Amino acid sequence: FPSHDTGGQGEVFLCKNNNEEFGLNKQYAIKLIPKKFNSKESIKNEVGLLSKIDHPNICKIIDVGDFEEFFYIVFEYIEGINLKELINIASLKKYKIDYDKIYEDLSKLLK
What we know:
Layout: E1 3-6, E2 11-19, E3 24-34, H1 40-51, E4 61-67, E5 70-76, H2 83-92, H3 99-110
């Protein structure tokens, strides 16, 4: 699949496991993060943070590792818009985004 999105750390690709023999016909999002811009410690921090959050609208981590010049994180794929798109839509429609409330809610989730 072509790149699905780009962000501050790297690119996200939509991938499909076609192993229908074992019933693994699922889609995943794979985030490729260049090692030259990120340390293993920063990846561990991201994975540690995300693994503490359990919410139906936040994708779960399936696998993490490194290969050649990239770190990778494999996420379950949740159909819909991503956070960047949601923020863009909200700002176009003049919705006020309460970043303090988002921070507060995420802090509660992580405790």
